[in-house]
Design brief:
The chain has 635 residues and is of the alpha+beta class. The protein contains 22 helices and nine strands. The strands form three sheets. Strands 4-3-2-6 form a four-stranded antiparallel beta sheet, with no helix packed on it. Strands 1-7-5 form a three-stranded antiparallel beta sheet, with no helix packed on it. Strands 8-9 form a two-stranded antiparallel ribbon.
Length: 635
């Protein structure tokens, strides 16, 4: 991993982001194209068929993300990304010849591989940036989600022009061809403008690459991504038929509003990456999930008219109805006021209503000349509540939710290089798979919910339940993680090592026995011992596990840097056992990384094993092995 970002890093990020933006635009093509074909009755597709066609490309992008991430970890991003761009262009072109639901679905499954570009780009970007900048870099890359807005804005206008405003509907077939050509052009540019780079673990076996997937943390991150990315993808397409069917908007207007949902969500992802770097991904996720619960709840209420019995008019005594007026019923000498029905009930979208409106009136239940008894109902009350679900309020809330999810997408992926620094491709790929499955499952689920309930806002009911579940699960895990390990009730766990002044005696003390006779190497060994002591103190103080990880990662990173410097030095003096020493370094780093993954659980026993390993390894390695090259120098 690089220590500092370079000009090449920024160039790779720029090209990666551009290619991902184009891929995302292609991936979302069906949201506009399928709505256009269904609304113009080119194909006889209902809500369920539309849901499947919106979801199928997303399914492909989801299932290919894991293998794409593995291939990127193994071979680097340049060959894998370029190959994906060329391959996806083929089914995009073939889509122009589709004549049935089956062939349309088959081609959609093919070009859906565009969605795997995310896993490739995440892994390819992360190897070009140091950990301190990865949240921002990955957030900028993720802004390529805005490609969805490009399609929802431009594709409806293109379709209208290609088909001469619907006069030549068969000309819709030119649109997929344009998209295919665009993919080929981007693939060529990608090959010309990028250079390849693989992560340090590119030599791992497949089993080694997949090992992190055994951790529940990966699947929890995947669920968060199912919400913030998968549901974003689903609504990027579902909002087009939603606006057309619920509010009677034109395809172009519906596409523009759907783009207003997609574009901020993509662009603001960069802000989410920056916020995750500055404030921590956990705090950002709390805000994202809490807001998602609230906004989803507000969007649940559908456009509706509810008529309910209201307060009636009751006779206070016996008598005969002598007169029924618009605003009163007269019984004997007594006049009972009644509310008359409004002449013009509020309905439709004639007025802009933010809050529900209420109308109350009475309907007579008696006739003139009728004898009534005390407590008899003279007029029944009618209460009518009308909620417009104003399109602009609805769109504003949807856009807000999309932007919040955009921040959440960056926060989820900020976690990955922190927890899995050398497996970003495979872990990012699996999290992307689960997120992509959200984009596949949700449109289909929305279609079935709509058909079963007849309520368009049933999709927001599902969002509310899912958001609440994610928030509760995250809070339970965080609460458990941030509890100090058992036995850390005092300021220091090991009271026998506390010196006067409440100072902890160092776990290891530098001495001449550690000297290898090479000043530069001795300085590095002294620094490494200091870092191990710092880690020991943080653990002994019973600090939260979140505070321990950065110190632990600092020890591991310096160890890697030290090993590299040591190998350069040994090579410069022609050390005979250099290859064997390199292999020892490799094995030690593998053990350290393995313990780091286990220590992520916060289990005190694992933390103890980690410290014991560092202490015994350092003593054994310096005294038993490193002194050999020192003696070789003296000889």
């Amino acid at each position: 991993m690089l220590k500092e970002a370079t000009a090449t890093s920024h160039r790779i990020l720029t090209v990666n982001t551009f290619a991902f933006t184009v891929c995302f635009a292609c991936w979302m093509l069906n949201g506009v194209l399928v709505t256009f074909l269904a609304s113009n009755q080119v194909f006889d597709w209902g809500p369920v068929e539309i849901g499947w066609l919106l979801g199928i490309p997303v399914l492909t992008g989801a299932i290919f993300r894991l293998p794409a991430g593995i291939l990127t970890d193994r071979y680097g991003g340049k060959p894998v990304f370029a190959s994906l761009l060329f391959l996806a262009a083929i089914p995009l072109y073939l889509l122009s010849h589709a004549n049935s639901f089956f062939t349309f679905a088959l081609c959609s499954f093919g070009f859906g591989m565009c969605g795997a570009s995310f896993a490739i780009g995440i892994a390819f970007t992360s190897v070009w940036y140091p950990q301190k900048n990865q949240g921002t870099a990955l957030g900028i890359f993720g802004a390529g989600n805005a490609g969805a807005a490009g399609t929802t804005i431009l594709a409806p206008t293109l379709l209208n022009r290609l088909t001469n405003d619907g006069a030549d509907l068969e000309n819709w077939r030119q649109l997929p061809v344009y998209y295919a050509v665009m993919m080929v052009v981007v693939a060529v540019l990608f090959l010309l403008l990028t250079e390849n780079k693989k992560p340090e673990v590119s030599s791992k076996t497949l089993a080694g690459l997949l090992k992190p997937l055994k951790q529940m943390r990966v699947w929890r991150f995947g669920l968060y991504y199912f919400l913030v990315f998968g549901c974003f993808v689903a609504f990027s397409q579902w909002l087009v038929p939603y606006f057309v069917s619920v509010y009677g908007l034109t395809l172009v207007t519906a596409g523009a509003l759907a783009a207003a949902f997609s574009f901020p969500s993509g662009v603001i992802r960069a802000l989410g990456g920056w916020a995750s770097d500055k404030f921590g991904a956990r705090k950002v996720m709390y805000g994202v999930l809490g807001t998602s619960v609230l906004v989803s709840l507000l969007l649940i209420v559908p456009k509706m008219e509810v008529v309910s019995p209201g307060k009636g008019v009751i006779a206070r005594g016996d008598g005969v109805v002598s007169e029924i007026l618009p605003d009163a019923i007269v019984v004997g000498e007594t006049s009972y006021p009644v509310d008359k029905r409004p002449a013009n009930l509020i309905t439709g979208d004639d007025e802009t209503l933010i809050l529900p409106s209420k109308d109350v009136w009475h309907e007579p239940m008696v006739k003139v000349g009728e004898a009534v008894k005390r407590k008899q109902l003279l007029a029944r009350g009618v209460t009518r509540i009308y909620f417009q679900a104003n399109v602009w309020v609805f769109a504003g809330l949807a856009i807000l939710l999309g932007a919040i999810w955009g921040i959440g997408k960056a926060a989820v992926y900020k976690h990955i290089p922190d927890y899995f620094p050398n497996e970003v491709g495979v872990v990012g790929g699996m999290v992307g798979v689960l997120g992509g499955l959200g984009g596949f499952v949700c449109p289909i689920l929305f279609g079935y919910l709509l058909e079963g309930t007849g309520i368009w806002t049933s999709c927001w009911m599902f969002m509310f339940v899912l958001s609440l579940f994610c928030l509760v699960w995250m809070h339970r895990v965080v609460t458990k993680m941030t509890q100090a390990p058992v036995g850390f009730e005092s300021q220091y766990a090991d009271q026998t090592r506390v010196l006067p002044g409440d100072v902890l005696a160092p776990l290891m003390q530098w001495g001449e026995k550690y000297s290898v006779g090479v000043p530069d190497m001795d300085d590095q060994h002294r620094t490494l011992i200091g870092l191990i002591n710092d880690l020991d103190e943080v653990i002994q103080r019973g600090r939260h596990i979140e505070d321990i990880w950065p110190v632990m990662d600092g020890v591991i990173e310096y160890t890697r840097v030290h090993f590299a410097a040591e190998e350069v030095y040994m090579e410069s003096i022609g050390y005979a056992d250099l290859d064997q020493h390199k292999e020892t370094h490799k094995q030690l780093l593998a053990q350290v990384h393995g313990l780091r993954e286990e220590a992520g659980s916060g289990d005190p026993d694992v933390l103890d094993r980690f410290m014991i390993f560092l202490e015994t390894w350092l003593v054994g390695h310096i005294i038993g092995i490193d002194k050999r090259y020192g003696l070789s120098t003296e000889a």
